[in-house]
Specification:
Elements (H helix, E strand, L loop, with lengths): L5 E6 L4 H12 L3 E8 L10 H7 L4 E5 L5 H8 L8 E4 L10 H21 L4 E5 L10 H5 L13 H13 L7 E6 L1 E3 L8 H13 L3 E3 L9 E3 H14 L5 E4 L7 H12 L3 E3 L1 H9 L2 H22 L14
Helix pairs in contact: 1-2, 1-8, 3-4, 4-6, 7-9, 7-11
Length: about 325
């Protein structure tokens, strides 16, 4: 079918979603070529065996690129066979707790460099993977109602604030056929920042033999989407997405903090409790130092547990952002 004969350009394709998308595209025979541009080569990206296999497929090319640099972006997009059909930007400085200039470079500058180059090369569809941390739930009715794509944005993390400014800028790039996606918490093989930090924290509380305490309540929404579904959605939108549209990507599970905590408690055989809204609202006033304290509390037992089991190097950590 016509869906099978396209070439894909993946921006930061060795990251969590990128590695799964490479696997999805080649294993389902959906491409003529996939080029992955990233500053982290596959050999150093902690790929599992299944993902390693996908990257050695002859249809996959890796291009070592620093996409904050315009010359590097031009070289990454250049191809003797002509422009790529689709480009998907999975890039973002997703590490929490960074400074503003780091996000400005790693999210805004990088994304706009790639989008302008894609427009110049007449890419059929350019997908921008944005963030769903766009909707504040300060009013009680916000918690009850699922946010629609039209809802007014009020980003509540630094990453989302910068992602929103990218979304706004993209609209002003001439000849850019852009589709914006806002995924929920993405989890699955290779996840480091979605649900994995909570799993690590569960393991830490088992190690410390303590009750796992969490801010807010069990009703707190933590909508999720499995990375395989995310990949299917990205492929579908390349072929059927409407230019200029924003799409939420989320499962129907209506996941809450309570559901996730129940599962983690079962896995590690630990107790958990929530400090509730009143205490959490008070904590909000001093969130910076509270988060710092929590991270300090978790880091030492995590380091001890890794040492005990001879884990000398790992990309995982229990670090949380406010």
């Amino acid at each position: 079918s016509w869906c099978h004969g396209f070439s894909y350009f993946l921006i930061t394709g060795t990251g969590f979603i990128g590695r799964n998308l490479v696997g999805y595209l080649v294993n389902n025979d959906l491409v003529t070529k996939v080029r992955v541009a990233d500053k982290v080569p596959p050999q150093m990206a902690w790929l599992n065996n299944k993902h390693k296999e996908a990257f050695v497929n002859p249809l996959v090319e890796f291009k070592h690129s620093n996409l904050i640099n315009i010359a590097s972006v031009e070289s990454a997009f250049a191809d003797v066979e002509g422009p790529f059909d689709f480009a998907i930007n999975l890039a973002a400085e997703t590490k929490y707790g960074q400074t503003d200039p780091v996000y400005q470079e790693g999210i805004v500058k990088l994304s706009l460099n790639c989008a302008r180059e894609a427009a110049k090369r007449n890419v059929k569809i350019y997908i921008e993977a944005s963030s769903s941390q766009m909707y504040s739930a300060d009013k009680p009715e916000d918690e009850e109602m699922a946010a629609t794509e039209e809802k007014k944005c009020d980003p509540w993390t630094f990453v989302a604030k910068h992602k929103l400014s990218v979304e706004k800028e993209l609209k002003s790039i001439p000849d850019l056929n852009v589709v914006i996606v806002r995924p929920a918490i993405v989890y699955g093989p290779g996840d480091r920042q979605g649900l994995t930090p909570r799993l690590i924290i569960g393991a830490i509380y088992k190690y410390m033999r303590e009750t796992m305490k969490m801010l807010w309540t069990k009703e707190l929404k933590m909508n999720t989407v499995h990375v395989e579904d995310m990949c299917r959605a990205l492929w579908f939108l390349c072929n059927h997405g409407k230019t200029g549209e924003i799409y939420h990507i989320v499962d129907k599970g209506d996941t809450t903090q309570g559901k996730i905590s129940e599962l983690i408690s079962t896995i590690f055989n630990i107790e958990h409790e929530f400090v509730g809204s009143t205490m959490s609202s008070l904590a909000k006033l001093n969130m910076n130092s509270i988060v710092e304290e929590i991270n300090d509390k978790h880091m030492e037992p995590w380091a001890d547990a890794c040492q005990r089991d001879n884990v000398t190097n790992t990309p995982l950590n229990p670090f949380i952002d406010q």
